[in-house]
Amino acid sequence: MIEKNVKVKLQEGMEAAALLVQTACQYKSNIQILADEKTVNAKSIMGVMMLSMVEDEMVTIAAEGEDEAEAIEGITAVLSSK
């Protein structure tokens, strides 16, 4: 398992959450997002929406599986882009 802390720069809303989930679904690994003492599956649109991440919030991305390193980098790229 790999974990990485990321400062969120992605804008809020359904479109941003959908982009994050779409990116997560490209990987075989199990990907979790930890924020505000909540942990959600990054491949779940409802879970990602429930986090209500805001700009400049620190979150932790955790991935476990055969492409975990690539998954962490892909999710980090989405979360840290505007």
Short description:
With 82 residues, the chain is an alpha+beta fold.
Task: Write up what this structure looks like.
By secondary structure, this protein is of the alpha+beta class. The protein has one domain (2-79): 2-Layer Sandwich (Histidine-containing Protein, Chain: A). It has three helices and four strands. The chain has helices at 14-24, 45-51, 68-79, and strands at 2-7, 30-35, 38-41, 58-64. A four-stranded antiparallel beta sheet has the order 1-4-2-3, with helices on one face. Strand 2 (30-35) and strand 3 form a beta hairpin. The longest helix is centred in the last third of the chain and has 12 residues, at 68-79. The radius of gyration is 11 Å and the shape is globular.
Strand content: 25-35%
* The top level CATH class name: Alpha Beta
DSSP strand count: 4
Sheet with most strands: strand arrangement: 1-4-2-3
How can the largest sheet be summarized? 4 strands, antiparallel
Looking at CATH, the homologous superfamily is HPr-like
Question: How many domains would you count in the coordinates?
Answer: 1
Taking Cα atoms only, what radius of gyration do you get, to the nearest Å? 11 Å
The total count of helices amounts to 3
Apparent shape:
globular
Distance between the termini: 27 Å
Give the second-level CATH assignment, the architecture: 2-Layer Sandwich
- What would you call the structural class? alpha+beta
Average pLDDT, rounded to a whole number, is 94
State the helicity in percent bands: 25-40%
CATH topology: Histidine-containing Protein, Chain: A
Unreliable residue stretches: none
Secondary-structure element series: EHEEHEH
